[in-house]
Design brief:
Layout (H helix, E strand, L loop, with lengths): L2 E4 L9 H13 L5 E4 L15 H14 L4 E4 L10 H7 L1 E3 L3 E6 L2 E6 L9 H10 L2 H9 L2 H21 L9 H10 L4 E4 L6 E7 L2 E7 L6 E7 L6 E7 L8
Parallel strand pairs: 1-2, 2-3, 3-4, 6-7, 7-9
Antiparallel strand pairs: 1-10, 5-6, 8-9, 10-11
Helix pairs in contact: 2-3
């Protein structure tokens, strides 16, 4: 079984080129594979009940994968953490928890969006816990559309302002957190996005190799990770916009 992993596509009406890239990517997926979307599929999300032509087009494209026996899975990101079961049903997509373990021959893969790894940024982690409170989400989703848009815009502006003054290390992963999570989950491979810093790095814990693979955002091209179905090899790929007509 081939598995494909993507993250940080940041679909929005303001960047139609990314949407075109995304649909092209889906069209080229091999029949019978699995697709894991590790958060921030959309640049923002203020509720499954908000009608949008883009949302409908994406749902139709993801639903069409099931006709090719492709199973799709989704982990919420920091931009689309309100994307829920209702929209996933329209996509015929399975909603996963913040962290998920996948078997790989004699190894295990830990997948996640990645923001939970940035534990040096205590301000963000506190803010994240607040936003993920079910009671607060329920109140927000009960508000009229105009209020939700206004609140989301203010939060986004505040985030941009805060990030512009943050030290770089605060917005990257904490290596000890990475090692602790892999050890706790008995995993030897970690796949995530969020930081927009694509890399493949291997460290040794108790003389055992541990590999972390980070996906890039899609602002300049297609970034994906492929797990081969023959030898279980997991590799990061990137294709600039000009080369996205054929990515496999």
């Amino acid at each position: 079984m081939q598995r494909y992993f993507i993250a940080d596509i940041h679909l929005t009406d303001n960047e139609p080129a990314i949407t075109t890239q995304f649909f092209s990517f889906l069209d080229q997926l091999p029949d019978g594979c699995e697709l894991y979307i590790l958060g921030d599929l959309f640049d923002y999300w203020i509720g499954d009940d908000i009608p949008s032509q883009l949302h409908s087009q994406v749902a139709d494209a993801l639903f069409a994968l099931s006709k090719r026996h492709i199973k799709s899975y989704f982990i919420q990101g920091n931009r689309d953490f309100l994307l829920g079961e209702e929209y996933c049903k329209l996509c015929n997509m399975t909603l996963l928890p913040d962290m998920q373990i996948l078997p790989l021959t004699d190894k295990k893969i830990l997948i996640m969006h990645g923001d939970l790894l940035c534990t040096d940024d205590k301000q963000y982690q506190k803010f994240r816990r607040r936003l993920r409170a079910k009671w607060l989400q329920k109140i927000f989703l009960s508000l009229p559309l105009c209020f939700r848009v206004r609140i989301a815009k203010k939060l986004r502006e505040k985030s941009i302002l805060q990030n512009s003054s943050k030290r770089t290390y605060l917005m990257d992963v904490n290596q000890q957190t990475v090692q602790d999570l892999l050890t706790q989950n008995h995993a030897s491979i970690l796949i995530h996005g969020h930081t927009h810093k694509p890399t493949t790095e291997t460290v040794f814990i108790d003389d055992k190799p541990i590999t972390r693979i980070v996906l890039s955002a899609w602002h300049d091209g297609i970034s994906y990770i492929k797990q081969d179905d023959t030898d279980g090899n997991v590799k990061l790929y990137y294709f600039p916009i000009k080369d996205t007509k054929k990515v496999f």
